[in-house]
Amino acid sequence: MDALVSLADTFAAAPLMPAAVLLLVLGGAAVLWPVLAGGGSRSELKRRLKVEVAAAPAAEAAPTPKKGASMVREKAARTAQDFYVRSDPENVARLRLKLIQAGYMDPRAVGMFFLIRFATFAAGAALALLADSWVAADAAAMSRWTFVVLAGAAGYFLPGLVLSQQVRGMMREYRNGFPDFMDLMIVCSDAGMSMEAGIERVSRELSLSYPALSQNLQLVSLELRAGRNLDDALKSLAERLSLDEVRSFATLLQQSKELGTSLSGALRVFSDEMRHKRMSLAEEKAHALPAKMSVPVTVCILPVVMMIAIIPIIVKMTAE
After folding, report:
1. Which tens digit of pLDDT belongs to each residue from 262-282?
2. What confidence tier does 15 reach under pLDDT thresholds 50, 70, 90?
């Protein structure tokens, strides 16, 4: 018992312990994040897209019983999703679309997002209380509770910021992979394949280089197999990817069908325009680099140059 008391006193006396505990908790959350949020959606999506593998025997495909923790988590996610759907359905619909754009196709992703948001809110408030008790025990009560509220608010908005960052990363992958998709569609069109068969073939070819784009294209292929119109399937793809290029591609196919023009030539022109647009964006970023570099150069290098130029003069004047 004395050893535990002395260990607690050591922790209270160490000024870096709150930061160490915070880093430990954040590291554990980063390790557990794929297990809690991403594993179920990825495995479910792969199971839905596996259309060419023969069905296993009934004895081998017997469902395994779920563990208690998993059942509790799913029930809590379903309850949170139902509550927010009843209270604010428009916000839930926007969040669902944003999760799909980030690559989370699981229908339970909305409930899991709300659970993670609540968990980060509670964790931020708890860590703030712990830091207050260790570091600022003599501070005023108002300042301590203000710090707790601000930490909880930061934890509440943190999942939204992470999700926005993931959406930007996915959009970057979609934008980089769509010209390659167009080139492969031109090859399939020149080979005499239909648009539906070409999309299915290209989705398999892009599975290694652009896996997220390949999954969305496979969903388009499954929608076409289910009897959905090609225009509607491509519009749904444009909503999932949130790219203007996909909307232009859907409009191009519709106009090509209405006017009776060559699909291969239209695809080739559209692919060249997309590559030219991507090159223009790269040149724009390159031209904006000197203006962006002027700020750190002015802040970090100019004061040092001024000190080197002025300090010898000041030393000489004081010496005289």
Report:
1. 777 778 888 888 878 878 888
2. very low
Q: How confident is the model at residue 312 (pLDDT cuts 50, 70, 90)?
A: confident
Contact call for residues 194 and 222 (beta carbons, < 8 A) = no
Q: How far apart are CA 279 and CA 273, in angstroms?
A: 10
CA 232 to chain centre: 25
Please tell me the distance from the alpha carbon of residue 16 to that of residue 34, in angstroms, as a whole number: 29
Residue with tokens 């809590």, as numbered in its chain: 76
Which residue in the block uniquely carries the two structure tokens 């570099």? 293
Which single residue is written with the structure tokens 């999954």? 215
Secondary structure of the chain in the HEC alphabet? CHHHHHHHHHHHHCCCHHHHHHHHHHHHHHHHHHHHHHHHHHHHHHHHHCCCCCCCCCCCCCCCCCCHHHHHHHHHHHHHHHHHHHHCHHHHHHHHHHHHHCCCCCCCHHHHHHHHHHHHHHHHHHHHHHHHHHCCCCCCHHHHHHHHHHHHHHHHHHHHHHHHHHHHHHHHHHHHHHHHHHHHHHHHHHCCCCHHHHHHHHHHHCCCCCHHHHHHHHHHHHHHHCCCCHHHHHHHHHHHHCCHHHHHHHHHHHHHHHHCCCHHHHHHHHHHHHHHHHHHHHHHHHHHHHHHHHHHHHHHHHHHHHHHHHHHHHHHHHHC
Could you read off the pLDDT of 74-90 as tens digits, one per residue?
Answer: 666 667 666 666 666 78
Handedness of CA 189, 195, 196, 202 (dihedral sign): positive
The whole-model pTM stands at 0.61
| DSSP for residue 62 | P
12: confidence class by pLDDT, cuts 50, 70, 90: very low
Q: Which residue has the tokens 């031209």?
A: 287
The overall average pLDDT reported for the chain is 74
Q: Element (H or E) spanning 136, and its range?
A: none
- Would you mind telling me the total number of residues written for the chain in this entry? 320
